[in-house]
From TrEMBL:
The keyword Flavoprotein applies. One of its GO terms (biological process) is FAD biosynthetic process. Belongs to the ribF family. Catalyzes the phosphorylation of riboflavin to FMN followed by the adenylation of FMN to FAD. It comes from Reichenbachiella faecimaris. GO terms for molecular function: ATP binding; FMN adenylyltransferase activity; riboflavin kinase activity. This is Riboflavin biosynthesis protein. Keywords: ATP-binding, FAD, Flavoprotein, FMN, Kinase, Multifunctional enzyme, Nucleotide-binding, Nucleotidyltransferase, Transferase. InterPro entries: FAD_synthase (IPR015864), Riboflavin_kinase (IPR023468), Riboflavin_kinase_bac (IPR002606), Riboflavin_kinase_bac/euk (IPR015865), Riboflavin_kinase_dom_sf (IPR023465), Rossmann-like_a/b/a_fold (IPR014729). It catalyses: FMN + ATP + H(+) = FAD + diphosphate; riboflavin + ATP = FMN + ADP + H(+). Residues 183-308 form the Riboflavin kinase domain.
Amino acid sequence: MVIIEGHQAIPNIQNAIVTSGTFDGVHFGHQKILKKIVKTARELNGKSVVLTFWPHPRFVLFPEEKTLKLLSTFKEKAQLLEAVGIDYLIKVEFTRAFSQLSSETFIQNMLVEQLKTKKLIIGYDHRFGKNRSGSFEYLKENSERFGFEVEEIPRQDIDDVGVSSTKIRQALFHGEVDLAAGFLGRLYSIQGTVVEGKKIGSKLGFPTANISVAEEFKLIPKDGAYAVRAEVGGHWYKAMLNVGIRPTVDGLNRVIETHIFDFDQQIYDQPIQIEFVKHLRDEKKFDSLDDLKAQLKKDKVSALTLLEEY
């Protein structure tokens, strides 16, 4: 997949079959549209193109609102789109000035002149331009003038999947990572870098890799203990992970720490990916470090049982 930074750098794409949107999480609902794009491109001897906006429009239009957390960083989204089979991903910088473009201007500049779109495929209720004035009906009425076909994925086709980014976020906020996986069609994951911690886990016999996630907007599931898979250096390992403030130890900052089973390597500053399999328990404050250690032993048994199939 070719990633293009900015709409000014768009090359000549043969028979561009296009869709646009934020596609946060690239869940089952999104995949309905994306697979249609890929299939149509092959049938018309063309290329599948996703036009996406970054940063997320809400970060630009409502900067004071700090509650929105995203299911995917741009890098993760690109990896997921490539896995679906998309040929081109065009990253359009979303600014306040861009948000003021009329639907007519957006369509003429981006879809007609830049992309020379052959066919546009969108999900139901998708709209373009300032005040979301560019509806499917508007596109359909003007398709001959614009010079491209327009197709809308019916509401029923997407609603039948029963998936939305909001539903997935809510599941993760409640620690229901297995439910989120069902909506996504894969395990929910985070990517980060291993950083040095206070080595308290090592003293308890459960050394941990502390994970720093650079993107503050990335959604981290509810505090607690989880059975997870960890990828380091191209290899996957079974592991358990804790998200939270570690109330038994210090109770200060929220941290993410992973104990990788049967693993004894120095991995500071290395990238790490975590896939969440199942929530084990909520975080709690124990009366002593011995009590915490005893619980960690129980967590390990539970995690290994849940991870048998992985």
